[in-house]
Write a structure and sequence with these properties.
This protein is mainly alpha-helical. The chain is about 70% helix and about 5% strand. The protein contains nine helices and three strands, in the order αβααββαααααα. The chain has a three-stranded antiparallel beta sheet. Helix 5 packs antiparallel against helix 8.
Length: about 230
């Protein structure tokens, strides 16, 4: 067998690394970084990093500032309204479809991820919360076998996850939404509508926390960042 078979190409690996940095809050919204500095921080060449940045900019996850600088865009209230509408339309349907195709392996994987999420909540690990919350949702959604909806959901998460990370950093993890146990119980029972409903509630609670944080920021001119 070819030893290269199944190996992720360099340009794709770098794209995934930068995407995860955005998703899990390693680059804060509004924080300006240089392309060269970003390349150095991940130990990659300029050419594949520029290609990854082009892709992420086209997906709305990055914004070009000029002078070879980029940033993760700050989320606006209007954008949050649109993202909320789209996530509530797409993700519960992914959860419902996934529940119809659920197997024991899916339940085991979700239980393991949720245990790590609970640990992150208990220890106040904001980055861990954001990462394992993402992994829980998308391990579930991948089971749906609905590629178009999955791609749309991933794009929406890249736009909103950085703001979730800042909310966690500012308020801590103790009161963060987590309806995963309820969704898992419904999944074990084969209750697809129940899984759909609990995932929608989980999404709505997370988005509401971001909205409240944005409202507080707008009312307090001394707050320059959400955290």
């Amino acid at each position: 067998m070819n030893t290269q078979e199944g190996k992720t190409p360099e340009h794709e690996a770098i794209y995934q690394r930068l995407r995860d940095m955005i998703l899990f809050g390693e680059v804060e919204p509004g924080q300006s970084v240089t392309i060269m500095g970003l390349a150095e921080s991940i130990g990659a060449g300029m050419t594949p990093v520029r290609e990854a940045i082009r892709r992420l900019t086209a997906e709305g996850a990055l914004q070009a500032l000029g002078n070879r600088r980029i940033c993760v865009p700050l989320l606006t209230p209007n954008q949050l309204i649109q993202i909320s509408f789209a996530r509530r339309a797409i993700e519960p349907e992914l959860a419902r479809l996934a529940a119809l195709k659920a197997d024991e392996q899916l339940v085991r994987d979700l239980k393991e991820i949720d245990a790590r999420l609970d640990e992150a909540i208990g220890t106040g690990n904001a980055k861990g919360y954001v990462e394992h919350n993402y992994r829980f949702h998308f391990r579930l959604y991948e089971q749906a076998d609905a590629e178009v909806l999955l791609t749309l959901a991933q794009g929406l998460w890249m736009r909103v996850a950085p703001s979730s990370r800042i909310v966690c950093g500012r308020y801590g993890t103790s009161n963060l939404p987590d309806l995963h146990d309820s969704a898992l119980d419904a999944l074990r029972l084969g209750d697809a509508p129940g899984v759909c409903a609990f995932i929608e509630q989980d999404i709505c609670q997370g988005l509401e926390q971001i909205r409240l944080s944005m409202d507080e920021q707008a009312q307090d001119p001394e707050i320059t960042r959400l955290r």
